[in-house]
Amino acid sequence: MGRLSRIGVAIDSDLLRKFDALIHRRGYTNRSEAFRDLIRSELIGETAQSPESPVVATLTLVYDHHVRMLADKLTDLQHEHYPNILSTLHVHLDPDHCLEVLVLKGKAGAVRKIADRLLATKGVKHGRLTITTTGEGL
Amino acid sequence: MGRLSRIGVAIDSDLLRKFDALIHRRGYTNRSEAFRDLIRSELIGETAQSPESPVVATLTLVYDHHVRMLADKLTDLQHEHYPNILSTLHVHLDPDHCLEVLVLKGKAGAVRKIADRLLATKGVKHGRLTITTTGEGL
Amino acid sequence: MGRLSRIGVAIDSDLLRKFDALIHRRGYTNRSEAFRDLIRSELIGETAQSPESPVVATLTLVYDHHVRMLADKLTDLQHEHYPNILSTLHVHLDPDHCLEVLVLKGKAGAVRKIADRLLATKGVKHGRLTITTTGEGL
Amino acid sequence: MGRLSRIGVAIDSDLLRKFDALIHRRGYTNRSEAFRDLIRSELIGETAQSPESPVVATLTLVYDHHVRMLADKLTDLQHEHYPNILSTLHVHLDPDHCLEVLVLKGKAGAVRKIADRLLATKGVKHGRLTITTTGEGL
Hints:
The structure is a homotetramer. Chain A is an alpha+beta fold. Chain A has two domains: 37 residues; 79 residues, Alpha-Beta Plaits. Chain A is built from four helices and five strands; from the N terminus they run βααβαββαβ. Chain A has a four-stranded antiparallel sheet with strand order 3-4-2-5. The longest helix of chain A is centred in the N-terminal third of the chain and has 19 residues. Chain A is elongated. β1 of chain A pairs antiparallel with β1 of chain B, so a sheet runs across the interface.
């Protein structure tokens, strides 16, 4: 964690009431925590835009395992980039479809490139990359 | 404006330093203002998702004015919905292309529908709807 | 416009039926037009990410004109960057609030920087930058 | 899979050349596959907006495991909603931080609500919900 600062923030009372209602709906019990989450989200958004930033990311893929050679291709691609892929989770969605989540670590640019390659593979029906933080300093 | 509340927020010193650097880069001279903007942005994001919310929006369209009847079609469509279209701005981008910005007002669902229709018109090459606030209570 | 190519696309019949229903709901009367719009949207998304790309953009601002000196500040800021600001549109939303839309042109990085400065100005309550195309080649 | 339809699409030659370059950069070897991915992405985007749609989703959380009782709270919350949580993956990022990915299944509205609760928990530093498809019909 590290040292805590206490700062004062001036907010129009109306706006504050609306914010309190919003964070209550989302399940926050603590207003400072909501502010910190907003800040971290802005910082991570900025980090993710710079290709050289170290990031952690998750890539969600949904694919049809009946597509010929697909599982092999996805495995090959992943092994090509094994230093950037920390781990994967697999769920059998239905008789045809698999969901796979990869946890990636590396520079934002490299991570995006690996994700693009996997998403472009024939048989992968949908996917999204979520860039998050390595945790450091947040 | 209305009455101002002063609240205290506890933030890890590291996180606060990073936030201060971020908002400095963006040109903020006042930390409270940055917090208020984050809050308003969350609130407007939530409002925009509910089709019944009253919103103001801007629709940006880029189109090729050489496409036969396009200008007429866009004008007709806009007149069909004139109570929701406050005003428009037109810029001649180059010999072929026009940019048009419409300011819309109404329920979020209705505004989205009008935007979809205009964006789907043949000859409209790109466009985006930006939902913002009516100003009230923010 | 330029020369037209006709290409063949293979799509699962189920997926095609769902796509046809989607574009019908959005008001398309022509499937090729819907495909072209999807393509252009991807291309513009990629362009917008590179700071050196020439772009056109619209910036939507909502502000409270009662805030002291705000109109002057916004005007000053805009004049500082007048070569990048093609035009603006102003709407009086209610007794307190103004909506202003700026049409910007320049490199994506420069345009974002101008937008950040304007959005960070005290009294500007909400805003969004929409990056679109200069029209060229799309 | 199911039956395949072959359709013709008319595209300006310039636009097509740019699209081909884009999908080549992303690693596609097949233009139809790129079109199908664009279509599926639009359809899933629409599905995700309707709270009643059945979806699969992944929730990425980064948290500080030193925060008192956090692991217990996250586990309790997850068990409260166990029918919607198919599986989770855990990665130890550094001495302080954990990354956890949850695979969720259910109606979009319910899934969002669970995600909001987990994201709002004190000690969870960042997170994102990615809504994807159950696979059915895509």
